[in-house]
Amino acid sequence: MKSILLKKQLVFFLIFCCAFAFSQTKIQVPANAVFYMEVNGKLLNSKTNWQKLNPILQNLNKNDQEKPTWKDFSDTGIKNDAKQYHYINFNDSIKSYTAHLILEDATKFVEFIKVSSKKELEITKKNKYSYTNLNDDTFVAWDGKRAVISGISYTKKLPKFDYDYAADSTVVVSVEEPPMIDSAYAEADSTYYEPEKPFNYKDEIKYLKDEIKYTKEDIKSHQDDIARMQKDIKYLEKHQKYPEEKKSTTELDEVASAKPTEEYDEEAEDLAYQKEMDSIKAEDFKIVKAFAELDFDRYFDSNMEVEVPKEFVKFQDGNSDVFVYSNYGEIVKNGAYKDLAKLYNFGDLIDNLYNSNSSYNLYFDKNKVKVISNYQHKDSEIQKRFSALYNGKKNKKLMSLISDKSVGYYAINVDGHKYFDLMYSLFESKNDTGKYQKELELMMETIKIVLDEEAISKIAPGNGVFVLNALNTKKVEYTDYEYDDSFNDKEIKKTKDVVVPDFTFAFATENENYWKRVFEVLTTNKELSQKFSKNGDIYYLKKDQKNSNYIDQVYFTVKDNIVYLTTSLENLVPKKQSSVSQKWAKDAAKHPSSGTINMQRLLQGLEKEFTTISQKEGFNLFRKNIGDVYFKSEVKKESIETEFNYTTPNSSENSLMYFFDFCNDLIKISEKETSTAL
Fold it and tell me: Strands 306-307 and 27-28, how do they pair?
C-alpha cells in the first residue's frame, strides 16, 4: 500500500515538474526570421528630450479635428527604458511582424491604444491576457506586465503550376512557425477548398471532344473572316474606299424604338461585388485572427522571456542603441524572388549569391550617427573567398589625388586575382541539383582554361580611386515649345544652367603597355579617330562646340603604373593635403574600401538646380542641417565590417534629437506651404 502511494506521489511530482518547466519555457524568435531588431530602451530614453519630442509627435498624431490624440508620449504605459524585441517572419501565405514590449502601466497602455486607434475597440479577454485588433491585420495583446503587437498579412495560396511541384521538395517549414495557420483555416471552414477529384477517363474524353468541336467552329469563323477581308481588299483596290452604308427609314425606326432585353442594374452589381469582397475579407480575417491568437497563447503561456538564436546576435554590441539583423538568404528564398528562382533552376547559384546575413549596430552619439555593419556569407568557404578578395595590396600613390577641396572620394584596395576564385565558388554546387548545373560547371571550367587570370589581374590589380573634385555649372541650349490659342506649336531656343562634374578616376596597373595600345587604337582607328586625339602622352575626347552634353572634355593617360581618366589636366598632379585630407588619404590606402562626401560642397554645386520658392526653402533647410558622410570597410571577425559615420552639424543635444529637430523643421515648411496654398 505504501509503495502504491509512493508511486502516485512520484507521478504527481513529475507531472508538476513538467508543468512548471513548460510554464517556464522561453519564447523563441523563429530561426528563419528575415528581420530582427533589438532596441536598447535604457540608452535611447536617456538621449531623448521628451519636452521637445512631445510637440512633434502630437503634431504628427493629430486627428480630423486637428487636435492631438495623446498629450504625453513619454507616458503611454510602455516602460521606456526597457528592451524591445521586433522581428519579421514570412512564408508562402503568412507575413507577420511581432513586437514584444514591457509595460509600466497596463491601464494607461490600454487607454493609449484606444485613443491612438481613433475608433471603438472590441476587447477579447482570455485566461491569461486580453487582446484587440486595431485594424484587419494588426492585433495587440497584454497582461499586467507585458504586451505583444502582431501585424499579420495573409495571402491565399494559388493553385500550383508544374515548376512548383519540382521546387516544393526544397522548402522546409517548421511546425512551430506561421505556415501551420493554413490548417487552422481548414478547420474553420473545411468546405473552402474543394478536394481534388480522382481522374475519370470518360470525363476527359468528353472534354477533348468538346475542345475539337470548339476548335472546328473557331476555324470556320476564321475562314469566313479571311474571305470577307479578301473581298474588302479587292473592293478597296478598285474604289479606294468602303461602300457607304444606307439604312432605310424602317431600320432606323426599329433601332430607335429598340429596348434592351435585360436592364442593367449598376447599383445591384456594385452591391453584389461588395458583398463578395466583404465575404473574402471576413474569411481572411478569420485566418489572421486565429494565427494572432495562436501567437499570443504561445507567448503568455511562456515565462515571457525572449530567446534569440545565437546566429542573430553574433555581432551584437551591448552598447549600441539599436541592433538589427537581416537574413537576406531567407528573403530571397521565400520572398519576392522565390518564383523567379523556381523558374530558372540553376542549382545552388541563387543560394550562393544571396545566402548571407547582415548585422547592424546603430549608435546615436553626441555629434554623429554611427552604424557598424557586418556582412557574413553562411557558406564558410565562400566567406573566406570574400575575405581574401578584401585583402588586397595598398597603393598610396593613388590617394595623393585626394585634396582639401574635394567634394568626396571612393577608394578600393582589393585583390583582383581573388575575384576569379570568388566567382567560381558562387557557381559551385554542393548538392548537384538544378537543371543546368552540369552546363554551368562546364562553362566555368571553359572560362578557367580560356582566361589567363594572372595576366588579367596585372591589367587591373584591384586598386582604384574616384575623386569628385568639384561641381561646376555651364549654360546649355535646349529646345522648348509654346502653343497659341489654336494649339499650334512654336519652337523656341532657350538656355539653362546645368551641373558639370569635375572628377578623376584612376586605378593601378602592372601592364602599362596594354593600356597604351588601347589608347593608341582610339586615335588611329579610322572611325574612332574622328572623336579621339592625342597630345604627347595625353589622349583626349575632341571637344565639340555644338555639343550640349554636360561634360565638355575627358582626358586619359597612363604613367607610373597608374591609368587616369579625368575632366581636367590639373587633376593629374598630386594635390596639396592638409591634416584632414592626409587622414582621408591614409584611410583610403589602408582600408579595402572607404569613402567620404562633403555634403556642404555637394549642395553648393547643386544650388542652381533648385529654382522655385518652396524648393529653395527646402534646399536652405538641408544646407543648414546636412552633415558629412564617411565610411570604411575591412575584414573583421570572419565578416566584412563597414563603419558608416554621419556628422550632425546643428545644435541639438545629440544625434538622435538632431533627426527629430530636422523633422520638426520640415513639418513647419510643409504647414507654411499648405497655408499659402489655401
Answer: parallel
> What pairs with residue 496 in β-bridges?
476
Range of the domain at 128: 78-157+280-308
Q: How far apart are CA 99 and CA 86, in angstroms?
A: 4
Decide if 71 contacts 58 (C-beta within 8 A).
Answer: yes
- Give the separation between CA 370 and CA 631, rounded to whole angstroms: 10
278, 501, 515 from 553: Cα distances, Å:
64, 11, 20
Domain-located, residue 251: no
Outline where 143-200 has alpha helix (H): 162-168, 181-188
The Cα 43–Cα 80 span in angstroms is 10
Q: Report yes or no on 627 lying in a domain.
A: no
Is residue 351 in a domain?
A: no
The separation between the first and the last C-alpha atoms of the chain, rounded to the nearest angstrom, is 92
Amino acid letter at 404? D
- pLDDT per position as a tens digit, 51-75: 888 888 887 776 555 555 788 899 9
What residues contact residue 567 under an 8 Å CB cut-off, 6+ apart? 500, 501, 502, 503, 504, 551, 552, 553, 554, 555
In the three-class reduction of DSSP (H, G, I as helix; E, B as strand; rest coil), residue 161 is classed as: coil
The whole-angstrom separation of Cα 547 and Cα 551 is: 9
**Number of residues in the chain:** 678
DSSP 3-state of 287: helix
| pLDDT class of 168 with cuts at 50, 70, 90 | very low
* Beta-bridge mates of residue 669: none
| Residues 454-510 pLDDT 10s | 888 889 899 999 999 999 888 888 888 887 777 777 888 888 888 889 999 999 999
Q: Which three cell numbers stand for residue 631?
A: 565610411
CA distance linking residue 137 with residue 133, whole number of Å:
7
Q: For residue 182, give the 3-state DSSP assignment.
A: helix
The Cα 266–Cα 149 span in angstroms is 41
Helix (H) or strand (E) holding 587: helix 579-590
Question: For a pLDDT cut of 70, what percent of the chain falls above it?
Answer: 77
Q: Could you give the CA distance from residue 101 to residue 292 in angstroms, rounded to a whole number?
A: 16
Query: 44 near 364, Cβ under 8 Å?
Result: yes
Q: Say how far apart CA 655 and CA 646 lie, in whole Å.
A: 9
Phi, psi of 625 (to 5 degrees): -105, -15
Instruction: Please give the model's pTM, rounded to 2 decimal places.
Output: 0.77
pLDDT of residue 321: 96
Beta-carbon neighbour count of residue 352 at 10 Å? 21
Q: Give which of 451, 559, 461, 453 is closest to 510, Cα–Cα.
A: 461
Contact 347, 436 (CB under 8 A): yes
Is 226 a member of any domain?
no
With H, G, I as helix, E, B as strand and everything else as coil, classify residue 452. coil
* Position 310 pLDDT exceeds 80: yes
**CA 313 vs CA 33, 321, 527, 642: distances in Å:** 13, 14, 59, 17
State the angle between helix axes of 655-677 and 613-625 in degrees (0 to 180), rounded to the nearest 10. 170
Work out how many domains the chain is built from and give that number.
1
In 484-545, DSSP assigns E strands to 489-508, 532-535, 538-541
State residue 673's pLDDT score.
62
Cα 124 from Cα 133, distance rounded (Å) = 9
Which residues touch 67 (CB under 8 Å, ≥6 apart)? none
Return the biggest CA–CA distance within the chain: 119
The top-scoring range by mean pLDDT among 112-116, 418-422, 512-516 is 512-516
